[in-house]
């Protein structure tokens, strides 16, 4: 590993979280006015948002201060004119609006659920006290907040609120009126002067409010605007006020501005102080994407990537072009004294100062952001600074401070020996890219666009997955057209081996996995195929070079493949044998012959259906030494299962993390404690990701203890990929559409402390029962267990019974049903096998009895997290009846006697008699057509569970049978 020249101590931990966010790559490039310059004489920082995190970035030291707390992607932000206060807001459930101190990076005021579902657009007043917001609701709301009044009281924060007219026209720009320094010093800016401008694509509204009367009113200028715009004009972009005047301007997508002003002429249907459109001025030849003001200037950023400054007569005063930017999304100035562009010339010729005083253009240095994901610093001295021709472009393009991802991130990979993380993504039929960053120096080392290069001849190929080889020599990338690209990890613009196209039908490669020794590689694709490659001599000729040789493929699953894993076993000759497994949504676990010599098709060794109703979501070879070769799988019922790799028997089922949805991605990490050496067995952990939002850590070995896993919000939306650093200290996560990659430091001690605080022995499992050890469910379980002991010793006897504290394993199904959990026969068999072979590898003997502690563990681990509800049963009836909703009783009887776990006729009749009551012909008591409601209420006796009786994530919400039935 390269020398640790980290810019700060990534391993510093707050001692609370098991994963601590340390660095963010990328930013929310599409937020208008989403990047702000915090630079002053004392600091060199900028602010931007990345997914659900605010970032204060020091572009000199490359350090980040991370503002965390949002669960949804940040939708808008604002910074006060003195650069002290930062406001961020998001949209969605549990939305927040937060005011931060930009110096200390701490939250000062948090407003929960503003507008109900969050804030769409916002601005902050010049004095920093007021915040104005627009909602994303229909109709839209506009609200003014005074966050400085009482930072501990949300109710008093709202100053005034109103409704935006014309719900069909969504307003997407909101700005406070700004004032000159003279105006701010000469008058007290009260609420009557703090105007607000909002606009949609067709309408512009100017708002005023009376704080005493708590009213918010707008000028109705619809008639004047229609009269003014007698000919077609393009959509409006933004509206800003011109400081020192009563004017405001609205930009358009054709590069024009509408100038608004007060006519002060009394008219019958309008106020003299109402702003009206006065003139239309053509400023640029492209869309005016961003408008702001700086001193006496109107500043316009255009879709061509240029920034122009206009005086109050709208004459261009300065321009900055040849910038490596597309649509300008933000322009923000440093909090510094404006510097004249030709200050060097003035210093050399001081006698000209008075003559040229009126011609001097002066502004602070500023930054821009664009939708090609660049944040660029521009210096005012560059204007009119005429460099040599060969340096002119460099001079005008400015300094790139941040380079983000323009299109979604599909895949990430971390070099096993160097501090390098590769990031790949793109847009379908448009553009694909790969970035390589040094995550210790925080510098992007390499960049390669795939489209239009010689590396990838096939047009519009987009990377879907990526992985470094274990020795770090190759960077392997799978594309949506079925190509497999093998690049030189030292030079990503060079191929190490010609492209491999191993399938006739172009199907996207979805997964690349290497064996631990790096001598085998497997891929999966969207065609539900598994393909094997080996690192061998070309054409098996020892005289030829080594390369990746295609060994064959197999369309082994008929539904989507969800996981693939290599494993290693020791054969009878004590040699290591490479093994390969896959799982899919077809509920199958398949093992392949890795020594297959058939170059046309990968051979299958075994094919087992491992789930009845749920679906495996991922798999990994189980690293913990147990005396057996085990494969770990996760399913969409939040269960972790261990399978014997040889006979495919289930060895353990336990409850996994339940927050954020089923786990779909797993990576193994090993942690050596200080007292251990590399030859000792390490502590193993799994890092995981769900499809959306949640990432987490699991301590091995798994046993269902909820204290052995933690989860947190890693991204506001989908998580497309995860990767672990070669030293197992850092986890990298990709957020797909949020255009960012997060780097997390893994603090193993945090989860160890959580395990210690969670209790020893059976205490964590007792706490998983509703009410704990002293609750009624636990007491019922003990009663059922004691009765089961009595039942197994013969009930009808007057002799003294000696209870040994255990029951035969055959009782486990009855005990589960007594507790309200109704497992299938396969699930009962899995429970029996789990207990039966729990000590076999240690003692060589099977366990034939069940004690109370084991019963508790089996119950809390096997029972469903969320029970079957009425809607699921109704949906099942729809599927079986082909959307009719009911089935003839003959059909239901036939299904129960011939499908799934087949019931005998006598068994079915016995069950129906228990549920419906005695009858000479129980089948005749059923109606000719059975619908879902009859099945639920009359047969199963389901009852509605009131919401106030449902507690916690692990509460059983299954509607149980009527006890009388």
From TrEMBL:
Is Metal-binding tagged as a keyword?
no
Among InterPro entries, the record links this protein to: EF-hand-dom_pair (IPR011992), Quinoprotein_ADH-like_sf (IPR011047), WD40/YVTN_repeat-like_dom_sf (IPR015943), WD40_rpt (IPR001680), WD_repeat_EMAP (IPR050630)
Q: Where in the cell is it found?
A: Cell projection, Cilium
* Keywords from the named record: Cell projection, Repeat, WD repeat
What are the annotated GO cellular component locations?
motile cilium
Q: Which SMART domains match?
A: WD40 (SM00320)
A Pfam family of the record is WD40
Q: Which domain of life is it from?
A: Eukaryota
Does the record carry Protease as a key word? no
Name of the protein this chain belongs to = Cilia- and flagella-associated protein 251
